[in-house]
């Protein structure tokens, strides 16, 4: 029986469902009441379910859907569904479920990057060691929410007192000055091929908006880094080989640590003025920047002779796995 492709409302759900329809799959969406009209207006959800809380997906009500659906994870999926419930449930996930643990915990994420031989900013294990400008990040896929800068130990504790958080909930990461590039990649666990699918920049509020203010006003505003949009960008072609190599190394590192990474992922990087990439995060699933390229990016147009979004590429991989009878290679 042909599976239904399903996800929850938010992040890149529209792209995922459109891609599934383009590959002739039936689709299902689980959303909250305030977004139901929006999703129905796009007419790409064959089945739409309304919930108060996304964790209802694990309830008896959705038992039949869980049997026939393959769920596609995205940023909202990772943030709003209980990770332990995902790992323990009968939910069929496109990709490796074990990645939720490695993506959601920044200390594990940096262990993965180290294992992969990928350059990263320095991580400080305690505030007393801060000796340069650092950014404080919290665990999970929060889209930059709550991040802030500190210059030293006193600055850290002052802001901790104001913001009221536990040190174990955050990571102290060196702040690298440079250009932010977010390359989108896809790795097939069937063909063992890696594809570069696009690159974006993220527009963050109010960090990006504050530059329009004169310095004397900007100095009095607390910076925030909440991602509110994405901007398309094309890298210098001479930079692409390193992106490709980092993608391959990340996959090799994942195979050593937790049975592998496949499907869509993003290396979130900073390029310094001496043209060195620093990877600041991994998004081990589809990222919202791919929403820019629903008809295909500059790179996808070279790879495919048809419009190929990341959402459609996921659906295509499921179709290939069905045809070759290797669903066990893409679903956990």
What does this structure look like?
With 332 residues, the protein is α+β, with helices and mostly antiparallel strands. The chain has 3 domains: 4-93, Rossmann fold (3-Layer(aba) Sandwich), CATH 3.40.50.20; 103-119 and 177-329, ATP-grasp fold, B domain (D-amino Acid Aminotransferase, Chain A, domain 1, 2-Layer Sandwich), CATH 3.30.470; 123-174, Dna Ligase, domain 1 (2-Layer Sandwich), CATH 3.30.1490.20. It has 12 helices and 13 strands. It has helices at 13-22, 33-42, 63-68, 75-80, 83-88, 99-104, 106-115, 153-163, 215-218, 240-258, 300-303, 310-324; strands spanning 4-8, 27-32, 47-51, 69-71, 123-124, 134-138, 148-150, 170-174, 179-187, 194-206, 225-232, 263-271, 277-283. A 5-stranded antiparallel β-sheet has the order 11-10-9-12-13. Strand 2, helix 2 and strand 3 (47-51) form a beta-alpha-beta unit. Helix 1 crosses helix 12 and helix 7 (106-115) packs across helix 10 (240-258). The longest helix has 19 residues, at 240-258. The model has no long low-confidence stretch (mean pLDDT 94).
């Amino acid at each position: 029986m042909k599976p239904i492709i399903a996800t929850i409302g938010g992040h890149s759900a529209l792209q995922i469902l459109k891609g599934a329809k383009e590959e002739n799959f039936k689709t299902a969406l689980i959303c909250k009441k305030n977004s139901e009209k929006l999703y129905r207006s796009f007419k790409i959800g064959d089945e739409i379910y309304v919930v108060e809380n996304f964790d209802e997906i694990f309830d008896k009500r959705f038992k039949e859907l869980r049997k026939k659906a393959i769920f596609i994870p995205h940023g909202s999926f990772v943030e709003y569904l209980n990770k332990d419930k995902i790992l323990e449930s009968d939910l069929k996930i496109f990709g490796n479920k074990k990645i939720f643990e490695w993506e959601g915990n920044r200390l594990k994420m940096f262990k993965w990057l180290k294992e992969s031989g990928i350059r990263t900013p320095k991580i400080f294990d305690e505030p007393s060691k801060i000796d340069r400008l650092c950014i404080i990040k919290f665990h999970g896929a929060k889209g930059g929410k709550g991040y802030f800068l500190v210059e030293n130990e006193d600055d850290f504790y002052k802001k901790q007192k104001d913001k009221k958080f536990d040190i174990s909930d955050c990571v102290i990461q060196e702040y690298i000055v440079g250009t932010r590039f977010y390359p989108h990649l896809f790795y097939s666990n069937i063909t063992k091929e890696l594809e570069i699918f696009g690159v974006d920049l993220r527009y963050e509020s109010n960090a990006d908006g504050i530059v329009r203010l004169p310095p004397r006003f900007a100095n009095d505003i607390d910076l925030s880094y909440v991602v509110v949009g994405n901007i398309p960008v094309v890298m210098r072609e001479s930079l692409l080989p390193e992106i490709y190599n980092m993608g391959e190394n990340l996959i090799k590192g994942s195979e050593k640590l937790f049975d592998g990474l496949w499907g869509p992922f993003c290396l979130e990087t900073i390029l310094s003025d001496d043209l060195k990439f620093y990877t600041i995060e991994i998004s081990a699933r589809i990222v919202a920047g791919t929403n820019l390229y629903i008809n295909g990016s500059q790179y996808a147009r070279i790879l495919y002779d048809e419009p190929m979004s990341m959402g459609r590429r996921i659906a295509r991989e499921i179709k290939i796995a069905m045809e070759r009878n290797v669903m066990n290679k893409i679903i956990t």
